[in-house]
Amino acid sequence: MATSPARRIAYRILLQIETSNAHSDELLRRPEVDALSAQDRALTTTLVLGTLRWQLAVDAQIRELLARPEAKLSAEAATALRMGAYQLVHLDRVPAHAVIHDSVELVKQGRERGAAGMVNAVLRRVQRSALSVQSSGEAVLAHPAWMVERWVRRYGKAAAEAICRWDQGPAGTAVRAEPNADLSGIETEPGCFLALAQRVVRGDLAQSRAVREGRVRIQDEASQLVAEMLAAGASSEAAQPVRVLDLCAAPGRKTAVLAERLPGAEVTAVDVSRKRLDRMKRILPPALTARMQLQTGDAARIELKPEWDLILCDVPCSGTGTMARNPEIRLRVTEADPARQHARQAAILRNGLRGLKAGGRLVYSTCSLEPEENEAVVAEVMAVAEGFRVIPVAEILDRLAERGDMTAEGRARLRTAADGEFLRTLPGVHPCDGFFAAVIERS
């Protein structure tokens, strides 16, 4: 019996993630995945993301079932065991005999053929033990303990558990579509916050022509909201075209929102990676990229003059607010990483403020839940930045609602996201990724 193509490709992707710095979202867009049937493509995605989401909890349980719990497993054996155990525990409709057969065969086809017997024995023990990892407590265990402890201290136990539960489920898919985009075969419903956002109920986005042409962009609503908050600061009375700078632009989704909202603006997108800028140009509609200047540069060092009306600093971060859609983050981020990120983030913010003209606004944002990357960065920079002030985020959200860019229901849902002066969405508490944003104005 041949191995399932979905399991074979999922195993290769998981093995690559285990042995390199590859990211699941990029690997799941590879041609070999796109070439699968819709059913197999969905199973491949479920196997990759589900295994990564539950890896920490599954690893601990597998360890108890090994004949030698202290033994170091090869990457091939560990990957086959994790993927197999995830299916046996979580996927009720998948036949156990097919899971065990394919797991063993996948190991036999690689360099670790001798581990096939062990994989077979352990997965049969998993099957007999009827492990259950569905409870809230097990969702917590699928995260590093240090991470959960930080969230409990910062946001409270209930919110920390909500974040963990959200991370363990499939991330909902939000899209932003052009007015006349053809969404044939895709069923959507209104977004949770924004007037132009839609949530996908069912349908195969990978086969959508509108998605391939960039007329429909997959983008979490919190990510869209960050760009909307900056666009809301554009003056309608300016004599000259609004000048917009995105300092960490790729992959360009927020840049695209800015270009759409400000059709007469001059938009410059800067990113340290030429490759990512080139990809940004390929995936965004030509009508938008034709109005953008794409420049390679280091956001912390590029020389800026105070000539920009709007600047977006959506800085590189730990990404702990996006673990439902990027589950491998929890396996790679260490407790020391937020503090390590802080210095570069502060440098980018300081540099961005230098580029603001009088009356201009800057949005500093991350998709991190960690205060070292968020409030602490803003506090450090603003302590010595003269002539700048933080605009309370509630004012910005009210303006978006008044203009109709945000729905009344969306504004109500975001009441708890106005964390003092800043925006703070929490996965599970709010129906979106976790984002932080601060709006700063130059007087």
Q: Can you give a write-up of this model?
A:
The chain is α/β, with parallel strands linked by helices and 443 residues long. It has two domains: 5-134, NusB-like (N-utilizing Substance Protein B Homolog, Chain A); 219-442, Vaccinia Virus protein VP39 (Rossmann fold), CATH 3.40.50.150. The chain is built from 20 helices and 13 strands. Strands 5, 6, 7, 8, 9, 10, 11, 12 and 13 form a nine-stranded mixed sheet that branches. β5 (243-246), α13 and β6 (266-271) form a beta-alpha-beta unit. The longest helix has 28 residues, at 38-65.
Q: If you compute it from the alpha carbons, what radius of gyration comes out, rounded to the nearest whole angstrom?
A: 23 Å
The CATH superfamily of the largest domain is known as: Vaccinia Virus protein VP39
CATH topology of the largest domain: Rossmann fold
Which class of the largest domain in CATH terms? Alpha Beta
**Count of discrete domains:** 2
Query: Helix coverage percent of residues?
Result: 40-55%
Uncertain segments are none
In terms of structural class, how would the helical and strand content be classed?
alpha/beta
Distance, first to last CA: 71 Å
- Assembly level: single chain
Described by strand count, sense and barrel closure, the largest sheet is: 9 strands, mixed
Average pLDDT, to the nearest integer? 93
DSSP E strands, number:
13
Question: What is the count of helical runs?
Answer: 20
Using the alpha-carbon principal axes, give the shape.
Answer: globular
Query: Which CATH-level-2 architecture of the largest domain?
Result: 3-Layer(aba) Sandwich
Query: Into which percentage range does the β-strand content fall?
Result: 5-15%
